[in-house]
Amino acid sequence: MGSPRKKGNTHVLLQKILEGARIEGADTEAVLLGDVVIGECDGCHACWRGKPCPRADDMNDLYPKIAESDVIIFATPVYWYGPTALMKAFLDRFVYFNCPENREKITGTTCVLAVVFEEDSGEAAGPLVEMFEKSFQYLGVDHAKTILVPGVTKRGEIAEKSDVMARAFDLGKTLA
Questions:
Q1: What gap in Å lies between CA 3 and CA 35, rounded to an integer?
Q2: Could you tell me which of 32, 14, 33 has the C-alpha nearest to residue 115?
Q3: Were 21 and a residue from 35, 89, 172, 173 both cysteine, which residue would form a disulfide, CB within 3.0 to 4.6 Å?
Q4: Residue 18: what pLDDT?
Q5: Contact 171, 163 (CB under 8 A)
Q6: Under a CB-based contact definition with an 8 Å cutoff, are residues 61 and 90 in contact?
Q7: Range of weakest confidence among 7-16, 70-79, 100-109, 130-139
């Protein structure tokens, strides 16, 4: 989850998707990017030479978890028509999976994009969705679904949108 706000709209949405997956027997884990340290990729390509990433941060612990995952949910609010800096740093570090030795660890993985934003028009999420779609295509992952939730601002108010919560729950069940 790329939101720095625990129990905010992104967190509530993600939790509802995971709840649906758990009901169907899936093992789930939420990684709150605000609780881990992920530095920016500096393009050194050590990972392309079979070496560990020189960034001594939490991303090195996440790579095996990502590789073992059947489904990855990228949950983020829209910040200035893109993802949060937390989510962008996380996505940038997927360069690790771009090298030939690591490509097979991610290719074919199912990915979901869950996005909340305060504007009422879906156009506000357009650039963010396009960035993720291109990234998913480039990595060779299966972009299974995007769930967009416009018009939410106050912390946790998304929980009052029963139709959204039902769609998120059903999405989780489907993903399991």
A1: 10
A2: 14
A3: 172
A4: 98
A5: no
A6: no
A7: 100-109
Please give the DSSP secondary-structure letter assigned to residue 25: T
Cα end-to-end distance, the chain, whole Å: 19
Check residue 33 and report its DSSP letter.
G
Tokens of 9: 């709209």
Residue 100: pLDDT band with limits 50, 70, 90: confident
Q: What is the pTM of this model?
A: 0.95
CB burial string 127-158: b at 16+ within 10 A, e below: ebbebbeebbeebebebbbbbbbbebeeeeeb
Give the type of residue at 64: P
Per-residue model confidence (pLDDT) at position 52: 83
Is pLDDT above 90 for 81? yes
3-class DSSP state of 31: coil
How is residue 14 written in tokens?
């993600």
